[in-house]
Amino acid sequence: MGQVAVLFRLMPESVETDMRSVGEAVRHAVPAGATIRGMQVKDIAYGLKALLVSVVMSDTSGILDATEQALAKVPHVESVEVMEEGLL
Questions:
Q1: Per-residue pLDDT tens digits for 56-69
Q2: Are the CB atoms for 70 and 31 separated by under 8 Å?
Q3: CB 85 within 8 A of CB 6
Q4: Against a cut of 0.70, is the pTM above it?
C-alpha cells in the first residue's frame, strides 16, 4: 500500500480562538497511522484565521475519515475540510 498526503483546513469557533493552542491539540489528536508534516496559520478575512494541517497517512480504508473526525473533535474547532489529497 502507498501513502496519501492530505491538506486539512480547520476553522476556529471565533476570531478570538488561540490558534497556537489549537495547533498543539491537533498534534495529540491525529490517530495512529497518520503523521503531521506541517501546520500553517492562514489569514482568511476580518481577523479570522484558519489552521492548515498537512498529514501523511497510509492508503488504508477508513484512515482519512478517522483523521477528519479526530480533528473535528479538537476543542475550539468549528469545521474541518479536506482541501487537497494525493498519492505519494
A1: 999 888 999 999 99
A2: yes
A3: yes
A4: yes
**Could you tell me the CATH number of the domain that includes residue 38?**
3.30.70.60
* CB distance 11 to 54 below 8 Å: no
Range of the domain at 42: 3-87
CA–CA distances in Å: residue 42 to residues 2, 10, 19, 34: 29, 10, 10, 22
Domain count, the chain: 1
Give the span between the Cα atoms of 84 and 88, in whole angstroms.
13
Q: Average pLDDT of the chain?
A: 95
Q: How far is CA 16 from CA 10, 49, 73, 76, in A?
A: 15, 10, 19, 10
